[in-house]
Please model this.
Amino acid sequence: MAGLRPSPWTSLLLAALLSVSFPGQMANRCKKAQVKSCTECIRVDRNCAYCTDEIFKERRCNTQAELLAAGCRQESVVVMESSFEITEETQIDTTLQRSQVSPQRLRVRLRPGGEQHFQLLVFEPSESPVDLYILMDFSNSMSDDLDNLKQMGEKLAEVLRKLTNDYTIGFGKFVDKVSVPQTDMRPEKLKEPWPNSDPPFSFKNVISLTEDLAEFRNKLLKERISGNLDAPEGGFDAILQAAVCTRDIGWRPDSTHLLVFSTESAFHYEADGANVLAGIMSRNDEACHLDASGTYTQYRTQDYPSVPTLVRLLAKHNIIPIFAVTNYSYSYYERLRTYFPVSSLGVLQEDSSNIVDLLQEAFQRIRSDLDIRALESPRGLRTEVTSEMFEKTNTGSFHIQRGKVGTYQVQLRALEELDGTHVCQLGEEDQKGNIHLKPSFSDGLRMDVGIICDVCPCELQKEVRSAHCSYHGDFMCGHCVCNEGWSGNTCSCPTGSLSDIKPCLREGEDKPCSGRGECQCSHCVCYGEGRYEGPFCEYDNFQCPRASGFLCNDRGRCSMGQCVCEPGWTGLSCDCPLSNATCIDSNGGICNGRGYCECGRCHCNQQSLYTDTICEINYSAIRLGLCEDLRSCVQCQAWGTGEKKGRMCDGCNFKIKMVDELKKGGEVLEHCSFRDEDDDCTYSYTVEGDGTPGPNSTVLVHRKKDCPPGSFWWLIPLLIFLLLLLALLLLLCWKYCACCKACLALLPCCNRGHMVGFKEDHYMLRENLMASDHLDTPMLRSGNLKGRDMVRWKITNNVQRPGFATHASSTNPMELVPYGLSLRLARLCTENLLKPDTRECDQLRQEVEENLNEVYRQITGAHKLQQTKFRQQPNAGKKQDHTIVDTVLMAPRAAKQALLKLTEKQVEQGAFHELKVAPGYYTLTADQDARGMVEFQEGVELVDVRVPLFIRPEDDDEKQLLVEAIDVPMGTATLGRRLVNITIIKEQASGIVSFEKPEYLVSGGEQVARIPVVRRILDNGKSQVSYRTQDNTAQGNRDYIPAEGDLLFQPGETWKELQVKLLEPREIDSLLRGRQTRRFHIQLSNPKFGARLGQPHSATVVIGDRDELDRNFTSPTLSSFPPHPGDLGAPQNPNAKAAGSRKIHFNWLPPPGKPTGYRVKYWIQGDSESEAHLLDSKVPSVELTNLYPYCDYEMKVCAYGAQGEGPYSSLVSCRTQQEVPSEPGRLAFNVVSSTVTQLSWAEPAETNGEITAYEVCYGLVNEDNRPIGPMKKVLVDTPKRRMLLIENLRESQPYRYTVKARNGAGWGPEREAIINLATQPKRPMSIPIIPDIPIVDAQCGEDYESFLMYSDDVLRSPAGSQRPSVSDDTEHLVVNGRMDVAFPGSSNSLNRMTVANTAYGTHLSPHLPHRVLSTSSTLTRDYNSLTRTEHSHSHSATLPRDYSTLTSVSSHSSRLAAGVPNTPTRLVFSALGPTSLKVSWQEPQCEQALQGYSVEYQLLNGGELHRLNIPSPSQTSVVVEDLLPNHSYVFRVRAQSQEGWGPEREGVITIESQVHPQSPLCPLPGSTFTLSTPSAPGPLVFTALSPDSLQLSWERPRRPDGDILGYLVTCEMAHGGEPATTFLVDGDSPESRLTVPGLSENVPYKFKVQAKTTQGYGPEREGIITIESQDGGPFPQLGSHPGLFQHQLPGEYSSITTTHTSTTEPFFLDGLTLGSQRLEAGGSLTRHVTQEFVSRTLTTSGTLSTQVDQQFFQT
Model:
């Protein structure tokens, strides 16, 4: 089997054939490799050879065939060949009743990448010796099982005798490690853990394997049970000892080894013993540790073994496990069993009474399974075993037939690289060794294997400082290896000095050879293998002129910056042929004498619709439209009617002549007749000549019109009425009169007595033989074939899995899924329509998509159509020549029924908008089912129903589909055979087809992107897949030519290349998109002939400038050149996986080279890369910690070494896991009455995932705030409804309220508040209640669902209210005197933004009568208030700490011209999808009638400005689509009246959504989307200081656009009347504050805050607030300083928790004294405060639990 060494010429011929079969792959791999020595060359590829001939001038590293062809002598070619030798081969003797293999030993040496195939024969006898060892759990719960086993010894022997006459049986027992916490270590429990039991132990071999069954029974009867503490047992320790202690257990070498493992508990495994309590830290050493009594002794010092360890050791010792477990632990061992190639699992009854039956079944299953495994294999070699005789199971074993010699095919393959390192650079233990190829029941084959990594012999014989090399280098392998500082073939050129490179410097440049080559011996040697040319490498042969995107029109070559054209071509880009062949007309002339030929094209003297490309008049085209062209002119000149009557008639370029009789048809060019719409008469005329009427042409018109008789016109309405009446009578008779119906059925027109149904009732298909993903299923019509019948049908996928389709459809109703749609058009199919690249096909495709998009836009969430193509449908009756269109519509999963109804409606009408379709035919395909309709025309007996087959990689091995004829909606036929069953059998794949990698990069200067597709052959045959391009940021026909088609791999083929033509970007695209990287995708689909899709089956092609690609990407480009020797490559296969809510494990494969470390960049997805964190690592993996929960991160890694930093890897995205949410942000109470309150709360500040529900609890408390009775719970499972109305509370009783949130990780902490409604002041306003909020009756039951109601009412305040109610979703916060005002949906969503009136409230506890103001905010910028500014005096002052500096105060007033509309009062954004938005506004005030609106929007960072004009003043909303996800947009809305445009309202908004990691502009289908603003200040917080002053504070913008320099605050009366005041607040702190004096009571003020950054002013945060007076209010007049109120804390509260402390030093502004405002409490920094003066307002993050008596006094 070793074979003879082939002759050199045979090798040469074989290599030549291979190089022809695979151009550019194997041959070029040797040729293009950057190698410096013979050894490096030999290791590039198994086909590489090296030439050591001294006089050889070509490239020395190449294939042997090309070296010999280039002139290298045979004896100078160094090539290393693989070897194979069988060293021991004894033939199998089937008469011996034992397991055997052949051969027994062999020796293999392979080159890297080499393979060796050979056959292995394995014989398993029908009967063989059996060793059965029973390993039983002896914990106390198994006592009854032990009793039953003692009584079943004889039955067990009978089972063994049925298997074989030669058997042994043994017994062992186990419990667990005798240590804490596994075992109770109290002395009395160590002696007897249970009554009448043995002391605890780990494992004990009770009975070694014996043939004496009596001895087995006697020893077993003496055994007693034992016990331990925890539920999992230490069975893994017992299994390992039973396997490795071969001598103690008594395993025989030539027998079948069976190990029965019986337990009712789970198992401990590796690392369970390495815990603090047990103190067992060392790993299991896999050795035998049994003492003389058979007891395991190392249970205290060694950990439990791992699952892979057990799998390996049991296979090594030929032991097959049988797990006999109870129902309780079955699920654990069901998963464990899958790791063992040959094993069995059975359910044990609670008392083990069925163990004998279980073992008998397991024996039968195991005997038919054989596993062949390669043990002790070096890392650099791979072994794969297949068989054509026996089927392979899911676990990898073979289903064999005993007593028969089995033949197996073994493939031994040497890897080229392992984890990015060449195999020859690995250790010796990874390159060579002894592989034990072992079947389950025999010793197996021993293979001495090794990888050839020898050094070339010529390198061992080098001449040091050789004369051949001018004594400046070593002569080795036929050439010189120069020392440092010397270069050239003979090392005669010194390098490194300035004088040496001066001849290589071009004038005006500082880089030698223009930076594109090396200066050697005063001459430039250019890089790029011919890309750069010229004495200074100044010419780039990729930069010549292009035509249609092709360099030199693909008709020449680029040389010295100019195109050198092929013969017969000229022009700057070789786009002009010298020949006039393309201008020759059908008569042999040039351009038909009507023009001249230039650059291969005819330029006609006179262009018209009827001249073609060679200036020839197309008479057939003339005749088709001639009558219609002349019709209007004839009509107006002859009769003075038609569309051109009047002056337009003078524009006709011919005259008419009225005649009494027209010539016959053969004497004229065309005879025309039309009906005159004015009098309903028909007129006729003829055309003579060549059909091109000119000024002197004459058209003959018949003088007399043919008119219908006028006397019978009155009969037409009467006839129509009678026909309708007759039809109505027939319909009534048919429906209500049985006798009439029977009579009508006898009429021929009623088509009585015919039937439709499927031809067959079952189809059996084999997937590997299928050439299509659909099946044409014939349907027959029998009986009377007159009339039309339409039949509706449906098909359901995976009917063998009940409820599969229902479960799939209920997963995510809003997930986008593709819907396939097929319609029959009302036009005939032509050959051009079947070619996707023809003009006719493009025009029809555009028409179809425009009309269908117009119809389906009414489906919510539907996207535009794609993948539109045309075909014909054979066996479709009389309309089989009509065109059928197939297209795909992306829509939500829940829209299926709406799509079906709409499609049926439009098909019935015969039109989709303006697109005509043939009624009676459609197909709508969803992801798991399809529905459609077919039509039988009159006289048609058979039509095909084209049903989809839903071929998916995840399909079952045998899949069932059901086709059903539903009904006959039109026609009189009855249904016959209604059902068709389709069975699809999936067989082993013949090949796996995939891309080589998921991303390919190509330079924008390339003409074609070449994408390799590879096939891994499993069963030699042909395979086919389909491919299709898909747009991303690159668009078809703008950046590349879209491509789709099929790839067919013939038998033996493993490689194909996809070619996609690239287009040069237009100048306008470059201006609009800048240097944006362009991407498009290529998808593989529809595998046929048994093919399977591997990973990756989708690839991304990235197009960009070379410099930018090098800067931004790391993967090698398609047309890139090998890196410079010694440079580090990018790390390969980066992979990230979440290891928790705040950890991500990131690993990769090392790049080629010798990196000393790695640098990892990671940042939050959507943030700029400049904000990335850096991490250093010395190993190819790292754990990222301290991350945000449920957050998307992007990361990449580069290697660095002595030569510097290498390129970064491709980007990897990963989302951390969810973590329980924080407590809800705040609780707010709107008190409706003393027994009714509306409770609302904010979303948690840290959601840490997606909030799925809230739980509200409330209950009575006593004076000490302790609960009285149980708390009532309410589950709010709609997370956006953060509001609850609680009724029927007990009057004058305090209640405790708690709210907590839940996400995917569980429930978070709760927010608590205590409030007594009776102590709250009455509200001087109505209470807004959102419709459909939950209402809770406090007097009803305890369960969640028992008291949830919903209300649509708006509750009003008492009649004395002075203000109208505001119905919106503003949350009103009343917590400890502080009012937090957040824009609606501030955490995750922005649903509505409204301006609310002031609301009053108090804190919750300690019941201090603080007044609090509530407001909402709107993200707008009001330019009306910033039109004019008048500066007033200002005085600088020293502000207290924690306060920003108030630098200026200014006033301004704004006045609009009379009749000009004001600013729209608010701007509201609603997200409709990840790329669509609804913008709404309120009608502004205006003295005159409005005429419309203008909406403008553009990207916040600049870009194209889009403008929408709305002429209707009643329309106050508009939907904007095709926005970019995660990009900020600025919207401006203004109104128009007769006097002009008013000021605009501006808002900034962002739709945040999850995007594809490789395509940041492509949202993930079905992902959530939210609205946010990127750069507005945080929520406005108002604190009342006095009746005429307040304090305003806000948080720093979450994502400001640039560095913050300060803030601009504007204050104005909400309803006008006084000039506005502006404040400039300097500084950038997490929270800024401003005190505003001089306000008036009971007057609403509008405040706007916007940040001033280095990029300008950002969007505004807006709020409206009112300080209202109350009778007996707590604002006394304290001297001349209103608003300065302080009180002293009692001594027992001298220690409080503070984070911000304000001083009491006053500052001055415009003569007003402003004191310190407040002390904020809450946080973790504790400060001792003695005699501390605390301001009027005390703000905390929680509640004070004890009543605080306030004492106010003047400082």
Observations:
- Residues 655 and 698 are 5 Å apart (CA to CA).
- The radius of gyration is 44 Å.
- Residues 715-736 form the longest helix (22 residues).
